[in-house]
Amino acid sequence: MKIAVAGTGYVGLVTGVCLASKGHQVTCVDVDEKKVEKMKRGETPIYEPGLQELMAQSVKNLSFTTDYKEAYRDADVIFIGVGTPEKYDGSANLAYVYEVAKQIAQNAEKHCVVVLKSTVPIGTNDKIESYIHDKQINDVKIYVASNPEFLSQGTAVHDTLHASRIVIGVTEEYPAKVLQKVYEDFDAPKLVVERRSAEMIKYASNDFLALKISYINEIANLCEVVGADIEEVTEGMGFDGRIGNRFLKAGIGYGGSCFPKDTKALNWLANFNDNEIRTIRAAIEVNENQKFKLIKKAKKYYHDFLFLNVAILGCTFKPGTDDLREAPSLVNVPLLLEDGAHVRIWDPVGTANFKKRFPDKIQYCDSIEQAIEGADICLILTEWESVKNFEVEKFQKLMKCPIVLDGRNCYSLSAFENTKITYDSIGRKTINPNLYKEN
Ligand SMILES: NC(=O)C1=CN([C@@H]2O[C@H](COP(=O)(O)OP(=O)(O)OC[C@H]3O[C@@H](n4cnc5c(N)ncnc54)[C@H](O)[C@@H]3O)[C@@H](O)[C@H]2O)C=CC1
Ligand SMILES: O=C(O)[C@H]1O[C@H](OP(=O)(O)OP(=O)(O)OC[C@H]2O[C@@H](n3ccc(=O)[nH]c3=O)[C@H](O)[C@@H]2O)[C@H](O)[C@@H](O)[C@@H]1O
């Protein structure tokens, strides 16, 4: 099938490449000329394991362009995968989606199915359909279907090729048939539902996961107060199949491009409809506080951060991605800098993006050893494998004052038991709590 994909971010590009790998003729469209030039050279503009290789393997079925007119003119299916970022009031900004809808309406010369993959508030597909029908120039039938995306960054290619489910939201039979055909070689359960249900499935899924994380973070905070161990608690909970053992990792809160914005968007939508979604509001509030957890912990050891050497391990919102969107590092590092700390950061792939936002004042390091050498305190913000596999004795050997605040519970407590390292993590007892406290 001839497919166009609008937007070559995590969702658009991965979708385009995976569809091409299954034999479809795919044109990926983006407004960003630099990105398009890069992709034409065979390079991916984002870091996503396996993407570069699959792109190379599927090159004969793939093209990249900024020329949307040509791409939308005779496509059978047009996927929309542009961003729907958060607006100041928490609602979703649909400007990019409408822009693509307008471009399609003005250029489609043949019957086609427009597929909304971007995460959009319930009812948006209906509005986009009316908008396209109002604005279209040629006498062709343009259908609109919802097909929300569930991939996670860092495993995007795998998640697309082996999706947990493919949700197809339609109001008519034809677009459902077309999408079944598009996905016929994808090994995943396919679910055809009402369009508004499809839109709600996306928000309800993301927000449930966010709620699960905030819930477990609150339990972890309480564990610290009452002397229980969150890792043992979640292990025990996870045996119950009704709870499940995934997404129960306590830490310094969820980040990323979606959980924060999708929780706020659903909360906004509820309020807009004179409704309340109190659980999600609580999840948002808990998460915002949780991001500052390590700074609060640091105050147990130092009165202030003036002239302190602070080592930061990990700045991306999770491992396996170079994405910084809503990462805890973005709120913690400015606070440390404001308080006069000398900040050193190590991250295997995220520092280039971090540098764009914070070009000076921070020392960027090539190794964990370099970041922690001479440090007065170390904050672990992302659980990269190389952090988890780091020999903990080196904290003692290299740091001026070996206080390790672990926001992602990378190590077992026993690893620190016979050391002179203060190890303070989330929802667990602190090892050597009193060795280095300021008077
Ligand atoms: N990032 C993720 O893991 C997931 C994202 N989503 C949703 O998918 C949507 C896209 O997210 P990302 O891929 O992260 O966004 P992104 O910000 O990485 O990429 C969006 C791309 O669209 C391009 N663009 C903007 N206007 C355009 C236009 N008129 N024509 C063509 N391209 C245009 C931008 O230049 C950019 O390259 C959002 O609604 C998001 O909520 C859903 C599931 C997973
Ligand atoms: O709509 C989206 O964009 C996507 O959002 C998330 O994917 P992603 O943001 O890539 O990353 P996750 O692995 O879900 O992690 C999100 C955040 O939650 C945190 N997290 C995750 C799991 C956990 O147990 N604890 C926890 O704190 C991570 O550290 C990270 O900051 C969902 O997992 C995807 O299904 C969804 O498609």
Automatic annotation (TrEMBL):
<feature type="domain" description="UDP-glucose/GDP-mannose dehydrogenase C-terminal">
    <location>
        <begin position="311"/>
        <end position="413"/>
    </location>
</feature>
<dbReference type="GO" id="GO:0051287">
    <property type="term" value="F:NAD binding"/>
</dbReference>
<dbReference type="Pfam" id="PF00984">
    <property type="entry name" value="UDPG_MGDP_dh"/>
</dbReference>
<dbReference type="GO" id="GO:0003979">
    <property type="term" value="F:UDP-glucose 6-dehydrogenase activity"/>
</dbReference>
<feature type="binding site">
    <location>
        <position position="325"/>
    </location>
    <ligand>
        <name>NAD(+)</name>
    </ligand>
</feature>
<comment type="similarity">
    <text>Belongs to the UDP-glucose/GDP-mannose dehydrogenase family.</text>
</comment>
<dbReference type="InterPro" id="IPR036291">
    <property type="entry name" value="NAD(P)-bd_dom_sf"/>
</dbReference>
<feature type="binding site">
    <location>
        <position position="30"/>
    </location>
    <ligand>
        <name>NAD(+)</name>
    </ligand>
</feature>
<dbReference type="InterPro" id="IPR014026">
    <property type="entry name" value="UDP-Glc/GDP-Man_DH_dimer"/>
</dbReference>
<dbReference type="InterPro" id="IPR036220">
    <property type="entry name" value="UDP-Glc/GDP-Man_DH_C_sf"/>
</dbReference>
<dbReference type="InterPro" id="IPR017476">
    <property type="entry name" value="UDP-Glc/GDP-Man"/>
</dbReference>
<feature type="binding site">
    <location>
        <position position="84"/>
    </location>
    <ligand>
        <name>NAD(+)</name>
    </ligand>
</feature>
<feature type="active site" description="Nucleophile">
    <location>
        <position position="258"/>
    </location>
</feature>
<dbReference type="GO" id="GO:0006065">
    <property type="term" value="P:UDP-glucuronate biosynthetic process"/>
</dbReference>
<keyword id="KW-0560">Oxidoreductase</keyword>
<feature type="binding site">
    <location>
        <position position="318"/>
    </location>
    <ligand>
        <name>substrate</name>
    </ligand>
</feature>
<dbReference type="InterPro" id="IPR014027">
    <property type="entry name" value="UDP-Glc/GDP-Man_DH_C"/>
</dbReference>
<dbReference type="InterPro" id="IPR028357">
    <property type="entry name" value="UDPglc_DH_bac"/>
</dbReference>
<comment type="pathway">
    <text>Nucleotide-sugar biosynthesis; UDP-alpha-D-glucuronate biosynthesis; UDP-alpha-D-glucuronate from UDP-alpha-D-glucose: step 1/1.</text>
</comment>
<feature type="binding site">
    <location>
        <position position="119"/>
    </location>
    <ligand>
        <name>NAD(+)</name>
    </ligand>
</feature>
<feature type="binding site">
    <location>
        <position position="202"/>
    </location>
    <ligand>
        <name>substrate</name>
    </ligand>
</feature>
<dbReference type="GO" id="GO:0000271">
    <property type="term" value="P:polysaccharide biosynthetic process"/>
</dbReference>
<dbReference type="InterPro" id="IPR001732">
    <property type="entry name" value="UDP-Glc/GDP-Man_DH_N"/>
</dbReference>
<dbReference type="Pfam" id="PF03721">
    <property type="entry name" value="UDPG_MGDP_dh_N"/>
</dbReference>
<protein>
    <recommendedName>
        <fullName>UDP-glucose 6-dehydrogenase</fullName>
        <ecNumber>1.1.1.22</ecNumber>
    </recommendedName>
</protein>
<feature type="binding site">
    <location>
        <begin position="247"/>
        <end position="251"/>
    </location>
    <ligand>
        <name>substrate</name>
    </ligand>
</feature>
<dbReference type="Pfam" id="PF03720">
    <property type="entry name" value="UDPG_MGDP_dh_C"/>
</dbReference>
<dbReference type="InterPro" id="IPR008927">
    <property type="entry name" value="6-PGluconate_DH-like_C_sf"/>
</dbReference>
<feature type="binding site">
    <location>
        <position position="255"/>
    </location>
    <ligand>
        <name>substrate</name>
    </ligand>
</feature>
<feature type="binding site">
    <location>
        <position position="35"/>
    </location>
    <ligand>
        <name>NAD(+)</name>
    </ligand>
</feature>
<keyword id="KW-0520">NAD</keyword>
<feature type="binding site">
    <location>
        <position position="261"/>
    </location>
    <ligand>
        <name>NAD(+)</name>
    </ligand>
</feature>
